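Form 12-C: Joint structure prediction
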Amino acid sequence: MHELPPRPTYTAEEEATWQLLYDRQRPRLARSACQPVLDGLDLAGFESGRIPSLRTLSKNLDRLTGWRLERVAGLVAERPFFELVATRRFPATDFIRRRADLDYTPAPDLFHDQFGHVPLLTLPAFCQFFQRFGEAGRDANDADVAALARIYWFTVEFGLIREQGALRAFGAGLISSIGELTHALSPGVTVHPFDLDAMAARPFVTTEIQTDYFEVPSFEALTHAFERWARARGLLV
Ligand SMILES: [Fe+2]
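Section 2 - Result
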């Protein structure tokens, strides 16, 4: 396990971009995100006034769930990604979007990778699902990798969860997006019932805002259903 590099020196403008993103999104999350995301933001150590450090976040995750962060320069290919996740490591960038790209960044930056993904890595029930997801992908053939990528998309990136009867967001693509968080919980979208086969069969577009989402009943139910789904395909034993 290699040591994470030191926290980069961010410019004053980059620090101000973080503060703007954080201060805009945090109050919205209080109304729209599931409780484990809200708790996870605090447990992981996020704060408004300072861009986080991967080392600090990773140390806090390790203490809470045994997960760690790996610094990456950008998107990771599917197979190395499965290997990281199977061994309780999550790849994250540590650059921040330009001010001109405040609302949308084509390449995931630290507001997506850290603010979006890290909170749920403080939750053992989510971590259990995620590790099994990585294990299932290790030896998957191309068709199964495509199915896993869709399940990932409709859960880890854009998943909704029912909490005391109300739909709340947990996917990192929603947690880190001002526009899509509100959109996903608006009446204009289709929210499909929990069904991994349906997720695995539904193509997605990465360049446009989503029209279709899936809800999960709980992270425990997600883990159990995923185990069954992956075992039926010989991806887990
Ligand atoms: Fe992501």
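Section 3 - Comments
The longest helix spans residues 12-32. The mean pLDDT is 96.
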